[in-house]
Amino acid sequence: MEAELKQKRLVLVSNGEPYKHVYQNQGIKQQKLAGGLTTGLDPMMQEDNGLWIAWGRGEADFEVVDQDNKVKVPDNDGYTLKRVKLSEEEKNGFYYGFSNEVMWPISHTFISKANYKEDYWLNYKQVNQKYAESVLDELQEDDLVWIHDYHLALVPGILKEEKPETKTSLFWHIPWPAWEAFRTIPWRKEIIEGMLAADFLAFHTDLFVYNFLSCAEKIGAEVNFSEKEVYYQGAKTRVESIPLGIDYQKFSNLAQDEDYLAKAKEIKSSYETEKLIFAVDRLDYTKGIEERLAGIDKFFEKYPEYQCELTFVQRVAPSRTGIEEYQQMKERIEKKVGEINGKYQKDKWQPVKYFYGSVPQEDLLPYYKAADLALITASIDGMNLVAKEYLAVQDSGVLLLSEFAGAAEYLDSAIQVNPYNTEELADGIYQGLEMPAAEKKERLEQAQADLKEYDINWWRDYFLENWIDCYE
Ligand code: GDG
């Protein structure tokens, strides 16, 4: 199996690109991009040397490509990145519109945030066609075409129509909702049909798989729930839950690195409080940032002995800045941070330190290490890699994790809370801070053993093996 796989070329298709090129100091510089999908898949592509097709959104992206829109990354040396060019109209309709105002809210069961504009849908179809054509132009016999995420649900269907023998799979990085939510999309049938053209589909958790199978049944497919197989229009699709892992070795090695340890120490001492709590999220309503701030407010009120003894550091990475909903949320978050600080601040102590801006992953890691507790309070999340990364570098910290993050299905050793229950959140923080050292160690060891076993390499191999099995 291993040898057979090695002979095949992996063609990875995603909306987000792993690297962008920008103008800097009169030259062009390559920048690695943050985000769950790309941080997870880039190390794998560097090893496999395949082809990655994605939207080129960097200001200098098309300055560095060849006539086929290709460039080698990282640093003109690794694997091939082929960039797809989107017009302003396509960007607004496909990306900001249908992907982020329909697919994103509905997949996360935020029905009231969806905006079902026909124009968005037409653009979504057009751009999916563009991606599919970009794949078809490159396709070689025996290629494995691995499509990623909710932006590209129609690509498997277009590929199968044009070239039925193409081997395709799709990994869905965000939740899949119950039919009650999904059925509100006017084009629900076309979307599921597009996905069912893939030979293999995978989600992070069993719940998302079950939800998807139920939706497939509702549009008229024959579903075998125990075998997780769907039969539709004469074709079979296998569906599996395969939780994305992290590059555990990289994180645990870094946790021993002296420079990195020194940076963590520096961060800890700069806050001048005994305890530090850390959170980092893309600015998104699914990440539960507002619920978390309410929990922090409650915590300082209910446990005043921690005032002046603890700093909460919240980093927020800009995201989808073109959508008004996101701009309004940013204002609400910043207002709440101001309120908490105004309410509890004493002398030099400020309870919440808030930073807005994206940083490279390397800069986040010392914060992970410095924090006594990490707060992940997503109101719903496909997986949440930050939770895993925090645990991988810790030797005495505690993770407080929303029971609604996909990661909760796999991390029993974290303190799990319902982020909408403000009291429970405040009590969870207290429980984490007061936890005896031996219990912390035991919980960490359990989590780290799992993260090591089910790491990014496991995920890739397990995905590929299950996919290849579909053809036997
Ligand atoms: C989607 C799903 C699912 C680097 N700099 C920053 C930053 N990073 C890195 C983190 C982590 C990744 O980005 C963020 O991963 P998440 O999993 O938390 O989040 P999403 O971007 O929402 O990703 C998610 C994932 O796909 C993978 O399938 O887990 O459920 O929504 O590796 O180290 N992250 C942030 N700010 C930075 O400045 N927040």
Walkthrough of the structure:
GO terms for molecular function: alpha,alpha-trehalose-phosphate synthase (UDP-forming) activity. It comes from Halanaerobium kushneri. InterPro entries: Glyco_trans_20 (IPR001830). Belongs to the glycosyltransferase 20 family. The protein has two domains: 1-244 and 454-471, Glycogen Phosphorylase B (Rossmann fold); 247-453, Rossmann fold, CATH 3.40.50.2000. Helix content is 45%, strand content 19%. The protein contains 17 helices and 18 strands. The strands form three sheets. Strands 5-6-4-1-7-8-9-12-11-10 form a ten-stranded mixed sheet, sandwiched between helices. The site of GDP-alpha-D-glucose (GDG) has 24 residues, from helix 2, strand 13, helix 13 and helix 14.
Total individual domains: 2
The major beta sheet can be summarized as: 10 strands, mixed
The CATH homologous superfamily of the largest domain is termed Glycogen Phosphorylase B
What percent strand? Answer: 15-25%
User: Bound small molecules, which ones?
Assistant: GDP-alpha-D-glucose
| CATH fold naming of the largest domain | Rossmann fold
Number of helices: 17
CATH architecture descriptor of the largest domain? 3-Layer(aba) Sandwich
Question: Low-confidence stretches at least 5 residues in length (pLDDT < 50)?
Answer: none
Radius of gyration, CA atoms, in whole angstroms = 23 Å
Please provide the count of β strands: 18
Helix content: 40-55%
Helix/sheet category: alpha/beta
CATH class of the largest domain: Alpha Beta
* Strand line-up in the sheet with most strands: 5-6-4-1-7-8-9-12-11-10
Euclidean distance between termini CA atoms: 11 Å
Mean pLDDT, to the nearest integer, reads 95
Q: What best-fitting shape do the alpha-carbon axes yield?
A: globular
